């Protein structure tokens, strides 16, 4: 289902998309397969071109062959020659070292010329699929060559995560970018928001009276958000050492998911109405004082262990990771959203690498009923659970109690799982397809607005500083487990448990 807020969207999607980092991993694994599938779904305009900027010496044929291989490997749909032929006509490889500011003028001329051939109307998407240290350099290059904002056309800047490494650096980066691009032209990617099921959170909440009427602290006992990965850091140890789980997952994906679960209904589906409600949730998160954190956060780092029956290294043995690393690969915490809807209902979040499962799920645990008629032994009452499955399965799981027909008076939890039987949930578009399409039509709803990023950093900075002041006794969980023992104790001391359904 598509959210309909057309009144604010571009009528003309024609554009040249310039991908800085055109030879990189992200472009090959995500962006090109996404564009391929958008062509397949007839969502790419007729007047469209892609200029892939890279440093490597490659002929156009070589570059196209790399892209074709990547699509064969990563696309959700098999290569169809007609679609591939359309895509390859659109792609142009442009060799350019983007740290060389004198080269931007030539790039501008190239793009202007291409405009006349493609008839893309002067519109531009500048996609920065590059390491964050280059964001500023490229934006400066675009400004110096007068490519950033042009009259009677639109230009949009797309920035990958991480946006800064703390509040201070994020602010400095944002100030620099804002000197060149206005906020409305900046698309900060959080690819989690492109996932179908994440968008479905709003539909489920605001499209079903049964859920919306119960969606508050009177009926919900607790909310659990778990984003777990079996993968370790692989070859990205150098990056991860600087980031850690709090920068890599919590500051962006986890807090974004939390805002969608907890936000008030927006007054309409316009992007700023939605983003304003999300921002209010971030502002309502109870302050993370050191006293609060002492009892409510658990950090972890994986040691060696077994994943799918095979031995794997501990984090400190990974490539480019120091043997005394204090970087966290796991975080679990309890937090409160202190507003009328949520005061008193805890949100438990956990995310980590090298865990037993790779999955993303939100569990809404409803309050139990008084044990007066049934469940006289309190332990027997299974709570109602609503599970929003984000990946790998996509769909909704709901647990409720019914009579056990095989016995005289037993009661059993019944489980309904839409991801099992709903074919609509099957071949879901990759997150990047939705995001790229939204960039072209000028819908920034699924991208983080600056005030959201700022609030998320304010909260995360406190966590990072707290972790950096502690000695953590890492490693403290085995690869292939579900994290440190203390993460289980965090809920057990509240009389609760993590649900793995
Ligand atoms: N990979 C992912 O799945 C993923 C997921 C989420 C976010 N991200 C983010 O996306 C961004 C890109 O990641 P990546 O994994 O694609 O990185 P990558 O594979 O290392 O690619 C980096 C790209 O930058 C180009 N580059 C570097 N210096 C250059 C220069 N001076 N002039 C021209 N081109 C230059 C490289 O070109 P040459 O190789 O031709 O030198 C290459 O195309 C990062 O911000 C990352 O955090 C990536």
Would you give an account of this structure?
With 501 residues, this protein is of the alpha/beta class. It has two domains: 6-160, 3-Layer(aba) Sandwich (Rossmann fold); 193-492, Dihydrodipicolinate Reductase, domain 2 (2-Layer Sandwich), CATH 3.30.360. The protein is built from 15 helices and 18 strands. The protein has helices at 25-40, 60-74, 81-90, 104-118, 135-144, 167-178, 196-206, 209-212, 237-262, 271-284, 290-296, 418-421, 431-441, 450-469, 485-492; strands spanning 15-20, 48-54, 91-95, 124-128, 155-159, 186-188, 220-228, 297-300, 302-303, 305-307, 310-312, 330-335, 347-352, 359-366, 385-391, 395-403, 411-417, 477-478. The strands form four sheets. The chain has an eight-stranded mixed sheet, with helices on both faces. The radius of gyration is 24 Å and the shape is globular. The two termini are 26 Å apart. Mean pLDDT is 92; it is low at 1-8 and 420-426. NADP nicotinamide-adenine-dinucleotide phosphate (NAP) is lined by residues 21-26, 29, 54-56, 97-99, 129-132, 160-161. NADP nicotinamide-adenine-dinucleotide phosphate binds at residues 21-26, 29, 54-56, 97-99, 129-132, 160-161.
Name the shape in a single word: globular
Q: The CATH topology of the largest domain, please?
A: Dihydrodipicolinate Reductase, domain 2
Beginning-to-end CA distance, first to last residue: 26 Å
The CATH homologous superfamily of the largest domain corresponds to Dihydrodipicolinate Reductase, domain 2
Which percent range describes the beta-strand content?
15-25%
The main sheet orders its strands as: 8-12-13-7-14-15-16-17
Q: Which ligands are bound?
A: NADP nicotinamide-adenine-dinucleotide phosphate
Backbone CA Rg: 24 Å
Mean pLDDT: 92
Structural class of the helices, strands and pairings?
alpha/beta
Count of all domains: 2
Biggest beta sheet attributes: 8 strands, mixed
CATH architecture of the largest domain: 2-Layer Sandwich
CATH first level of the largest domain: which class?
Alpha Beta
Number of strands: 18
